[in-house]
Automatic annotation (TrEMBL):
<dbReference type="Pfam" id="PF13564">
    <property type="entry name" value="DoxX_2"/>
</dbReference>
<keyword id="KW-1133">Transmembrane helix</keyword>
<feature type="transmembrane region" description="Helical">
    <location>
        <begin position="46"/>
        <end position="64"/>
    </location>
</feature>
<keyword id="KW-0472">Membrane</keyword>
<dbReference type="InterPro" id="IPR032808">
    <property type="entry name" value="DoxX"/>
</dbReference>
<feature type="transmembrane region" description="Helical">
    <location>
        <begin position="69"/>
        <end position="86"/>
    </location>
</feature>
<dbReference type="GO" id="GO:0016020">
    <property type="term" value="C:membrane"/>
</dbReference>
<protein>
    <recommendedName>
        <fullName>DoxX family protein</fullName>
    </recommendedName>
</protein>
<feature type="transmembrane region" description="Helical">
    <location>
        <begin position="7"/>
        <end position="26"/>
    </location>
</feature>
<feature type="transmembrane region" description="Helical">
    <location>
        <begin position="92"/>
        <end position="111"/>
    </location>
</feature>
<keyword id="KW-0812">Transmembrane</keyword>
Length: 121
């Protein structure tokens, strides 16, 4: 049972890291979809790039045991920021789209770091 949980958590981590890198890169490269979404919230292009860099860093932090929880909390925080903007606009569809990603990070934190080399200094 423990091995199954570790495999499931590893898959969830892979999904979270992939999505974080994908969305972060879309923000850094100022893709039209991201520019449009964050533009309605008055994000400057520089602000969008900075948020993209934070998203990429948080995704990479998830991969390492010492920064695992910090990366997940940081990524969950950026998702909460986006959820807050959707709520301010009254866009409940956007909130529902973002909620699974927030829950993904919380489940990953709950299941803990799955790899055996946790205490490498």
């Amino acid at each position: 049972m423990v091995t199954t949980a570790k495999i499931i958590n590893s898959v969830l981590i892979t999904v979270a890291v992939f999505m974080g890198l994908k969305q972060g890169w879309a923000m850094v490269s100022a893709s039209p979809k991201m520019t449009e979404m964050f533009g309605k919230w008055n994000f400057s292009p520089t602000g969008l790039k900075m948020l993209g860099l934070v998203t990429i860093c948080s995704a990479l932090m998830i991969l390492f045991s010492k920064t695992f929880v910090y990366g997940n909390v940081l990524m969950a925080s950026t998702i909460l920021l986006i959820i807050g903007f959707h709520l301010r606009d009254g866009d409940f569809r956007g909130v529902v789209i973002e909620l699974p990603f927030l829950l993904l990070n919380l489940v990953i934190i709950y299941l803990k770091y799955p790899l055996p080399f946790k205490n490498i200094s």
